[in-house]
Design goal:
Helices cover 29% and strands 33% of the residues. It is α/β, with parallel strands linked by helices. The protein has one domain: Rossmann fold (3-Layer(aba) Sandwich), CATH 3.40.50. Strands 5-6-4-3-7-8-9 form a 7-stranded mixed β-sheet, sandwiched between helices. Helix 3 (36-47) packs across helix 4. The longest helix is centred in the middle third of the chain and has 13 residues, at 64-76. The relative contact order is 0.17. Bound molecules: adenosine monophosphate. The site of adenosine monophosphate (AMP) has 17 residues, from strand 2, strand 7 and helix 5.
Length: 181
């Protein structure tokens, strides 16, 4: 039995109906990471499959991916690479657009953050459609890096993101699932 099952991590996640707009069930991890057991179990659950794997960097997606990814990188003894919303990184960047329900958004990585051939673990709090994570994976691949896996605390499988990433050859690791969106 894995640790997240013993701890019952799902019960620490707060669900907020109709946020940020009607029809969305917002899965709020602030209640999970505010709890010392919840935070530790989440970080441990994310990294355990990768303890014996060759990883050069952990990349976290702004903003909740920074909290979890930073802790995962520290525990694995690896460096952390931020993937940020457009206009936030101070050095030269490469950017990647991705589709939102209405319109397009853009994320960026420093052009020298990942060296060709480096192995990267991607971390975010939640995967829904997979658009954000897929754009992050594109940035790493365009930098010459190899995405070893992508790990998320929460999967919304009905939105198909996990399948989408797997279809591009990425291993996906998640700790819990919620039905619907
Ligand atoms: P997507 O690109 O559709 O996979 O959406 C993933 C990103 O949007 C993550 O960074 C999540 O933090 C956020 N997100 C999407 N849907 C939800 C939700 N229902 N509850 C909380 N965060 C969400």
């Amino acid at each position: 039995m894995t640790m997240h099952r013993i701890v019952d991590l799902e019960s620490y996640v707060r669900t907020i109906p109709d946020y940020p707009k009607p029809g969305i069930m917002f899965r709020d991890i602030t209640t999970l990471i505010a709890d010392p057991v919840g935070f530790r179990a989440s970080v441990d659950g994310l990294l355990v499959p990768f303890l014996t794997m060759e990883i050069d960097h952990v990349a976290g997606i702004e903003a909740r991916g920074f909290i979890l990814g930073g802790a995962v990188a520290h525990e694995l003894g690896r460096g952390f690479v931020p993937i940020r919303k457009k206009g936030k990184l101070p050095w030269k960047t490469i950017d990647q657009d991705y589709q939102l329900e209405y319109g397009v958004d853009t994320i960026e990585i420093h052009e020298d953050a990942i060296k060709p051939g480096e192995k990267v673990l991607v971390i975010d709090d939640l995967i829904a459609t997979g658009g954000t994570a897929n754009a992050a994976i594109e940035l790493i691949r365009r930098s010459g890096g190899e995405v070893v896996a992508a790990a998320f605390v929460i999967d919304l499988p009905d939105l198909g993101g996990t399948r989408r990433l797997q279809e591009t050859g990425v291993r996906v690791h998640t700790l819990m699932e919620f039905e619907g969106d």
